[in-house]
Automatic annotation (TrEMBL):
Organism per entry: marine sediment metagenome
GO cellular-component term (any): plasma membrane
PANTHER family membership: FE(2+) TRANSPORTER FEOB, FERROUS IRON TRANSPORT PROTEIN B
Coiled-coil regions listed: none
InterPro entries (UniProt xref): FeoB_GTPase, Gate_dom
Keywords noted in UniProt: Membrane, Transmembrane, Transmembrane helix
Gene Ontology molecular function: ferrous iron transmembrane transporter activity
Pfam assignment, any one: Gate
Transmembrane segments: 215-236, 248-268
Protein name according to UniProt: Nucleoside transporter/FeoB GTPase Gate domain-containing protein
Domain Nucleoside transporter/FeoB GTPase Gate: 148-243
């Protein structure tokens, strides 16, 4: 990008600016937007960027950052309009919104074609792989932390009992999270398999298909269906019966039935698959 910005090939100016923004974004994640810490980080970031943009070749960097922000804003407005108005690709409204976006981008490109080309290269070719790698690393960190958490250790300790059902420690860990609310099971599996913010249902599905058989998937659904309900239901049972006895009977009994049924289904199923 340096050549497109008219910077020396060995200049680290652009890299420093991007690193400053990334570092600030990471620090701001620790605060709410209305907290003083958030504003302080923003002020420090702006101060650092001002120092970079007022030095040698700073004008080119300032123009790059300004055009990049405008281009990003235009794309975000387009994406927001498509989502909010549910515009289908190829429809008249979609094409009209797309034309407005392209016209606005075209106007910006006329201001400084070289820097606009550099911005396009950065947004289309450089940042997406970086964001994807960052998400993967964050996901791996979450997965590693989970394996050493209390839930992860309990899941590993449960492995000998889960293996006859076709389950491993990862599934066991997800079941622990699902005790709070069964819909958490899918999200927990996403964390276990290191899917970052950009990891969606398709990626998780591909991971599960690569690691488990359809029989295991069926057994997971069967166990979730029969096993003890979520924690809130157990609490309601205790309140309505005015006794922990029936709540524990519900918890232990349904879990035992789910284990026995799933065990039979998995072991018999292995004979045919």
């Amino acid at each position: 990008l340096n050549s497109g910005l008219g910077l020396p090939s060995d200049s680290g100016l652009l890299v420093k600016a991007i690193q400053t923004e990334i570092t600030a974004a990471e620090q701001q994640e620790k605060f709410w937007e209305d907290q003083d810490g958030f504003a302080k980080v923003e002020a420090n970031k702006q101060k650092a960027l001002d120092a970079l943009t007022t030095g040698e070749h700073g004008a080119k960097l300032a123009t790059f950052l300004e055009i990049r922000d405008r281009v990003e804003a235009i794309h975000q407005e387009f994406d927001k309009a498509v989502e909010e108005k549910e515009l289908g690709e190829g429809t008249l409204d979609y094409n009209q919104a797309q034309k407005i976006r392209d016209d606005r981008l075209g106007a910006i490109s006329q201001e400084d074609p070289a820097i606009f080309a550099a911005v396009t290269t950065y947004l289309d070719d450089i940042r997406p792989p970086f964001d994807e790698l960052t998400d993967q690393l964050n996901g791996q960190m979450q997965s590693e932390e989970l394996s050493y958490s209390i839930a992860g250790r309990i899941g590993m300790a449960m492995t000998p009992a889960l293996r006859p059902l076709g389950f491993d420690w990862k599934i066991g860990t997800a079941f622990i999270g699902a005790f709070a609310a069964k819909e958490v099971f899918v999200a927990q599996m996403g964390i276990v398999y290191s899917l970052g913010e950009s990891g969606g249902a398709d990626q998780l599905r591909a991971q599960l298909q690569a690691n488990y058989t359809p029989l295991t998937g069926y057994c997971i659904m069967l166990f979730c269906l029969i096993s003890a309900p979520c924690m809130a239901t157990i609490a309601v049972t205790k309140r309505e019966s005015n006794s922990w006895k029936w709540a524990m009977v519900q918890l232990g009994g349904l879990t035992a039935i789910a284990y026995a049924v799933t065990l039979c289904v998995y072991q018999v199923g292995k004979l045919f698959v």
